[in-house]
Amino acid sequence: MIPTVEWKNGVVMMLDQTKLPLETVYQECRDYQTVAKGIRELWVRGAPAIGVSAAMGLALGARQVQASGFDEFWPKFEAICAEMAATRPTAVNLFWAIERIKRFVQENRDKGLDAIRDLLVQESQRMIDEDIATNKRIGAYGAVFIEDGDTVITHCNAGSIATAGYGTAEGVMRAAVEEGKQIHVFVDETRPVLQGARLTAWELMQEKIPCTLITDNMAGHFLFHDRIDLAIVGADRIARNGDVANKIGTYSLAVLCREHGIPFYVAAPLSTIDLSTESGSDIPIEERDPREVTHVFGKVQIAPEGVAVANPAFDVTPARYITAIITDRGAFRPKDIQKLSDTGLDPETFRIK
Ligand code: MRU
Hints:
With 353 residues, the protein is an alpha/beta fold.
């Protein structure tokens, strides 16, 4: 597992995933503006990875604020938080992480600015450690759904580098392999940014998990020919009613799985569940640069000059297509996700496994 993001002597090192798999390059971020640019430009992407990167960016930002006391510090720090929150709109982990950091700063306001700056570095590191532990729990809860000999299909990249480490959807596969199960993974290439081809295939090969790369439009063919046993994907935001926003193309795969009677699982930490969003239609969908569609890697043009382009980065899979949502507290039916907010209700009572 290579680090996705780390703090090294006052510098945030971000794995530049736009260069993978051909080069493994870390971008050195010396200010929060560079971290924000890195999130916007997908150096680091994937919901949990975006969250922890933002937290580290805010630790840098706190060091950049010039203030003589907390009252002068706070509005300037809030402005940095707002800038960080404007980087990407869909993955709720970004906002979850920013809110956690803001709360943390307020809780420590009496300790003095130097102490707050040091504590923020520790807190963002704690978020990284917690995310890895969370993903291992998701893996353990999810591995029971994979049987020895199964072929899994996945979309986008919900692997180690989409998180602080270990991965969510890929963490479930990793956990199954760690339990001694033999699996094979079909990897959707994931147009237009190719997170499947560039990142998931690369990560699975590093882990020596057998995989086959396919273009997105081949999934139906392999499902039709009984070559796939289950689908597992990650999530960018899960609404209260169990609808899931994830990388564009996830919805089509879920519908195909339903048609072929194949279970469709979503693996995500609790920080991806947004109980304040009622349903999938309330989730903001990021629209990205048309060049991602008209050009390969922003360089080779593959479409006529001036063609109209739509490029939504995510779609919503309605809860009815999802067999279970695998979280760090267990696997739940999508309709039961809202019960996680009902204090006093033991998840044991509605956990599937
Ligand atoms: O645009 P991206 O690469 O940030 O989109 C990532 C995804 O859609 C992932 O599947 C999702 O964030 C889950 S990552 C554990």
